[in-house]
Design goal:
7-stranded mixed beta sheet; 11 strands; mainly beta; 4-stranded antiparallel beta sheet
């Protein structure tokens, strides 16, 4: 059973940057693709970014392309989401998730994830 713990959320102003971190406990972390999702108030959870098990491919939802970067450090069992040029519409709870074994999609859905963190809140003010 994996545990995923997100950190790094907070209250920032539009145009600022934040770096989210996700610490994973799974022993097979280096063989799993990982993803970030977010859920804004009153909205459904949506895909933000994904990274393949070896970091060789990253995919993003259109609204964050060019502003967000997903990376991973397999030696440390960590996944990161660097968020630049933040906008008020980026306000949401951000979740780290582990993709089901031996699976990768450039636009994964929630059902493609096997493990979830509890989330970290990002609030972007004007």
């Amino acid at each position: 059973q994996w545990q995923l713990v997100e950190s790094g959320g907070g209250l920032v102003q539009a145009g600022d940057s934040l770096r989210l971190s996700c610490a994973a406990s799974g022993r097979t972390f280096g063989t799993r693709s990982m993803a970030w999702f977010r859920q804004a108030p009153g909205k459904e959870r949506e895909f933000v970014a994904a990274i393949k098990w070896n970091g060789g491919r990253q995919d993003y939802t259109d609204s964050v392309k060019g502003r967000f970067t997903i990376t991973r450090d397999n030696a440390k069992n960590m996944v990161y989401l660097q968020m630049n040029s933040l906008k008020p519409e980026d306000t949401a709870v951000y979740y780290c998730a582990a993709v089901k074994a031996a699976y990768y999609s450039n636009t994964p859905a929630s059902v493609d994830m096997e493990y979830w963190g509890k989330g970290t809140l990002v609030t972007v003010s004007l």
